[in-house]
Design goal:
By secondary structure, the chain is an alpha/beta fold. The protein has seven helices and six strands, in the order ααααβββαβαββα.
Amino acid sequence: MTVFTADPATPAAELERRIRERATDAATHLASARAELDHYHQELNAVVEDLVAKMVAIRLAGQQQRNELTLQFVEPDGEQPAGPQPWEASAGAVSTEDTDPHLLFRQVLHVLQPAAIELAANTPFIEALTSEDLLRSLLVIFLKGRLPEPFLFTEETFHGQGKVDIAVYWHGRLIGVIECKVWHSERKFRDGIDQVLSYLTYEDMRVAYVVFIRQQNVTPIIATLKRAMLEHANCADTELPAGGGQVDFAFHASGDPARPIAMTLVPMPLATSATGTSTERGLRRQRATTDERASSPG
């Protein structure tokens, strides 16, 4: 609510003009503040994602280093701690009991982000991959190259009531699933959410929903994806998150609302300006100029 004070002698027309000017200024400042807040959220998300990836890498390196040690250590009180020790494992083995599956799956999500950039940078190759299955297989190849064993990625794996597109394992333990869809319509995207939820068992709590976007109008499509996620009956969030990259949503299991599921939306735009007709006109003009220069004497 805004309160205006004015001299009673001020003509009504003049007073209305002043009120409208102040209302316009307030709306402009509010829009600017919202834009700055959205920008801040995007920068904060990028910093957090980078920090999580670095924390995971440091933790895994520390675990690997600890398990490769062959020295025996004595507790400060001079007594050996009970139970088997990490350094008693075979060389090169990585302990899995104390490895956080959430951090491991965050590492997978962090690798998915540059995958979209690299895929979009190879437009002719992507255009040749006409099916969803081929795009998914290419994504698996990318993941295997960036995250070698003990990570394992399997396609079309029977799980729950169907087959998950990509099952993500760490030392043989399932730590999350990846659902892959090519964007066609909001209805099919919503069906994909229900589909992947039906595949999950009680132990499954982490999902990445990858959406390949071949269209060039990426921004409104991502807005539609985020709104569809937020409006889903299993979504526990109440506000639409900012940003156009990976977005985390809090979901719950269909049959057990008390069981939380972390579902991350991963938009993957594949179209670039290289697929547009404007660039093609530029290429034709460039080729014509080259031909003219080649045919000119001297």
